[in-house]
Amino acid sequence: MKLLYYALLLLSASCGGGLGPRDESAAPGATLPQLQHLSGAWQATSDTYELLRLQGYSPPASLPLTLAPDSTFTFAGLPDYLPLPSGQRGAGKLLSVVGRWQVRRNESHWEVLFHFKEGKLYPNGLTTNYGIAVVDSAYQLYTYIGDPDQGLVLTWTKPYHN
Description:
The chain is of the alpha+beta class and about 160 residues long. The chain has helices at about 1-15, 30-35, 45-55, and strands spanning about 40-45, 65, 70-80, 95-105, 110-115, 125-135, 140-145, 155-160. Helices cover about 15% and strands about 40% of the residues. The protein is globular and about 40 Å long. It starts with a helix and ends with a strand.
């Protein structure tokens, strides 16, 4: 019986299962009008700062992300963790980027798509997605570095509005 329990526990924890770092079912109400409150200023969590330090980055005191109501964004201090066009990983730099954002439903959860404008690092532009969750009365935008099962997650937060 103990063996069955441990097998079920291991199965539920694998591949982003119920014991993963994020519970995407906690996304706000699953209606687009509620998600319109995503615009505004976001701040990186203390866990994000610690993870960046462990990954070799030297984060400044603030890593602001601003989502404007006109669907534009500015991201001061985005880690270059995204794969480069050459397939290599970044060199531990924090980038200031701009672009457009939009909210979309992806199967069972909501996410924010970030469309980066063309620049030196991504000459053809780039689109990436961040999951949306509500934890402790705050919105969270989050993304994983590498395999989600490793739990290396970058998170920005903002107060939740009903």
